[in-house]
Amino acid sequence: MASDISISDATAIEGSNHLKFIDQFIPEGSEFVRPRQPAFGPDGNGDGVEDLYIASADTDEILRYDGDTGAFLDVFVSQGSGGLNGPADLEFGPDGNLYVSGFEGNHVLRYDGLTGAFLDEIGSGLAGPIGLTFGSDGALYIASHFGSQVLKYDSSGLSVFVPPGSGGLIHARNALFGPDANGDGTNDLYVASGESWQVLRYDGLTGGFIDVFATTDGPAAWMEVGPDGDLYVGVAKNPDAEFVRFDIETGALVDSLFVETTSFWFIVDQNNVVYNPNGYDLSILRHGPSSLAVFTVSLSSPSASSVTVDFQTMDGSAQAGTDYVPTTGTLTFAPGQTTRTILVQTIDDAISDFNEAFSVVLSNASAGAVIADAQGVATIQDNDLPPTKFYVVNDATQNRTYEYGATGAAVENYALNSGNTAPRGAASTVAGDKTWVVDANRKVYVYNNSGALLGSWTAGSLASNATVEGIATNGTDVWIVDARKDRVYHYTGAATRLSSSQNAASSFALNSGNRGPKDIVTDGVYLWVVNNSTTNKVFKYTLSGSLVGSWTITSGGGSPTGITIDPANVSDIWIVDSSSDRVYQYTAATSRTSGSQSPASSFALAADNTNPQGIADPPSVDSQPTAHTSAVAAGIASLNRRTERDSSTPAERLDRNGSQTDLRMALDFVFSRDQEFGPRRLRKAIRS
Fold it and tell me: pLDDT exceeding 90 applies to what percent of the chain?
């Protein structure tokens, strides 16, 4: 019976480097046992593509796989060759030979790069050699795990390059060369310090300690520099791993992705695709930038012989060479293989042209296979749409944050942290640099404005069976609403928290009519709580819990689940509804304390944003013409609101901690965003 071939549709986000899952490049149940570092090396089967070499620690072998199909080719270095014990890292040297660190054998061995034949041992008794890298001087640098040092091997033999413990180095995992940090014209050495959870930087000439380049949220285990110039760091999370990406010039966090894998080992190819061995099922996983369109081609049943099918891209509203890279080729299904992947890179064209589409078309199937579905359509989500205004968190099969512009146009979306499986509310501040997402598991996850996880913490004082429904913050404190007890819990100073746990400093009961609370928002003076009950209403409270008033929602969707305001312009209220999957705008509703109100406008959520739970309105720092103006305005607005309730003199008010806090927060944000906006201009702004 002939097998059917079909192709999936695909989605790509123009210009996005957020990592996403691509496929199992090598399927589960492969030949390696306790996989460690992969490496690309010489083409062993003549197909013109570099092959993938993998260290199999428990069998003391180096295995080779087809770099195009992932099919197993052969055992490149035979079991125990040269005394190999516990292979860890692989590195093809300038001489074309393969260097392997034997972690359990405390040695580094060298093999012929074309045949895999053992050549010699270049070092022994090395106290857990693990990471290998070559410098521009041709020398081999060896990270010694238990020695907490970096060794150097050249024509003179072995020597200590980074002394034990230098700069706080504890249990070195990996080392590589990167940009010059101290201006001596030589690339510096970056070392993953496992037990101190840091990436440390050393002078590339002398090995002298320079600084702590980055701190990670777990043991820094492995590193690679991608073609995009970013530093990728594998972080051990026990039992899983996290891939974190830093700007290697500045050390700024770019992106993070949790992966259900036992292994923190990985390599990055020329397309910024991450290859990661997975010890759970003995596979190789691939993750890549969201700008890649990923098409899955499937064979309905495995074949005893190879099956091929041709493919090529075809223009739609997206044009080859302008919106995507034209791609053509032939896919080969190895015997027994039923899925293959086609990757097409999209192009960031800097033109606002909304979503566009192109296709990949299959033809000329071999071995009697029948093409049942010949065309896969890729949708390119444009990244040049208006700046993000709303974040909507979605609780579905895939827990994601969806971004929308002011008019409701979908901008992009990205996955929440793997532990953030039941998101219930979102919050942000005037700075727009962080988003807080509270989960039904009573944890608060903090993300930057690129969707990268900054940290998480557990909200104490909530019962184990609490029904967490919403979160609010003024940039200093955090408030969480519990629908089981109909209470709001106040966490003082928790906006800076990124780990551990914190108990509430206080709490208050909601009004008796405020049953079924779904979300909460604050401007730092008042709290607004939306409920989903027989009558859907918005309740307004002071920060201490006194009811100011309430009003009835009319003509909305009927199932409000999230509420937000613009923290830089406190006037309108937006409510997201899970029944209609729409966002509704209530004009000037922050001042309403009675009666009812209908929405002035609304917009539909994206097609797969089908279970919205929370909404935030974080002003985009990049989209604000004068971000410092908003920060100062927020501080001044807070002072003005206090002035309305306080008959004391301005001097007396400025002497109080609260007013000083407002100015201090404004100053902190001003100077972090605009060094030219100095004290003289600030005083002038305040006087005006």
Answer: 60
